[in-house]
Amino acid sequence: MALEVDEPAAILGWLPPPPGVAAPSSLGGDPPVPEPTVPDPGQRCAEFAPVIEQAKGIIMAQYRCGPDEAFEILRGMSQHANVKLRVLAERMVQQVSLPSIR
């Protein structure tokens, strides 16, 4: 047994209009849905690239390795500590750039 959809209910918006019946124009149909604004991932990466590069430099100097290996070390440290890579890089750079107290 098929569910009967009456036109007044469809006009009031309680139910979708039956097949073959257009939505009433007086209600204007569904309001337009704005496109979600998603930040460009490349822009975010570029924003944090300098501090990550500095952290890589610190690791390269300490472990005497290349940039790719330094990034892998940084990434492993980030995963092990469960801290975002950029946050870990910022902390490393702050630690190195603080003046020593003697």
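That was protein one. Protein two is written in the same sequence-then-structure order:
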Amino acid sequence: MTKFIDGKDFKNRNCNINSFNNSVLKRIAKEIDINENATIHGLRHSFGTYVYSQTKDIVGVQRVMGQTDSRTTEKYYVHTQLDMIRNISNAFDIKMNHEVA
């Protein structure tokens, strides 16, 4: 196990840093009226989704996100794009059905 000079292991140090970063992000999100459940991990996925939506370059996203297995990248980012398309399509269908009725 990797140890720091003060004897705390890397995993515990990482958890403390993530907790601190999440608390800062939640405070900022609350101040600007964004979902208070925001996390650094969610922000990471939002960034990956944005990059993929702009480039459609799954290999580039894989590299930027530091993932070694392209299946992981596809699972998160291509799947998310398909869900977004479905949601837009469903919203359009609801809107069209409402206007026709």
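Residues 56-101 form one domain. Keep this in mind for the problem set.
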